[in-house]
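Q: Structure tokens for this one, please.
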Amino acid sequence: MSSESTPPRTTHRRGLRRGILLALLGYVVLLSVVVIAQGFLVHERAERLVWRTMLNSELDHTLERMRLDPGYRWSDTSNMRLYDGRDSALPPELDTLGVGLHDDVVIGDRINVVMVRGVEGHPLMLALDITDFEQREVHTALNVVGVALALIVVLGLLVAWAANRLVRPLSRMAEHIVRLRPDLPGQHVEVPPSASSELHVIADALNDYLRRNDSFVERERTFIDTASHELRTPVAVISGAAELALQHGLPPAAHNHVSRIRRTSRDVEELISLLLVLAKDPAGLSRSNERVALDQLLPEIIEDHRHLTHDKALTITLAPLPQCGINAPLPIVQAAIGNLLRNAIEHSDRGDISVRLEAPATVVIDDPGHGMTPEEISAIYARIARGGGDRGGGIGLDLISRLCEHLGWRLEITSGKGSGTTTTLTFPT
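A: Here is the predicted structure, written as tokens:
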């Protein structure tokens, strides 16, 4: 079956493999960032502690030498300079520094760490040039970040491999479930003994559902079988009574009606037999095929349903019929076309219902009813897919759809709001 209504929108769902991978990668990245940040923080604190200890020790030694030897003068080295606010003016870069340790102080084009003390009301500053050290520190930091990124990539690959390994049994189970056939009883899902306990729980639950579904289907088939056998008796009585009535002289009008009763009862008997086959062995439907001339059958079906239009302002028009024959079960063809015609009559109040036969072997019924929106047509197909189609009159759209599926027919419904409905039933030639 098919429809020209708007197709349903697909929902993109994130896979379990992707979810596990993103979660573990996020954890690895977060852990790496925290470790690196903690390492830099510890490094900075240790570095300041070293600078503070070294510069304080040097200042203590210098002040002690100055106290013991008033003529002692500090001699600057290549990387350490002493600034005494008591003897000379301080460089502008140091003039605003308070007492304590100051890191990353730029003097000229060099980076320094400066320890400031107050001596006799004046600042005494010892500056250590750490430019080379800072450059090596930057190189070290880049190396650490590079190693961390490489580690994240390696861990990401390992996580992807592990996630794929974890999800593979679930994917195999899903593939097994996809291969299950709804028409075969006694099916079950198998998982290897090495599978996780969660997979065994899922498989056990699904297998239990399959067993319960088999039991339910068997009960339904038994019910259909019993009901069909029970229906055969009253239908046979009607058919026999019609046969007896026709053997007596009847007025022409009554004779026509009784003939229709006999013909219809025989068709119903054959339909019951086919329904039994559908309930027990759907593949057996094709074994009851016979040559059916659609161009001869359509007028009979229309005449059998024309009485339904008597209380409505409806007419049924049959277009010129090309010669057309198909191989199919005659009662099923009659029931399917008759049900579609009955639906067109029931959903129309006035106007003309057009029935035509198109190549190849296609019956088209146009009704002047109220029409349906694409959403309403989609709802009909959804009900049919669930096995809960229109159950009003005849064998219903849900049963027609099942017959189409087993016999290779195609049923299409197209409509526009307020513009009637077109039903197309195509038979294989």
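A few notes: Residues 64 and 422 are 110 Å apart (CA to CA). The two ends are 17 Å apart (CA to CA).
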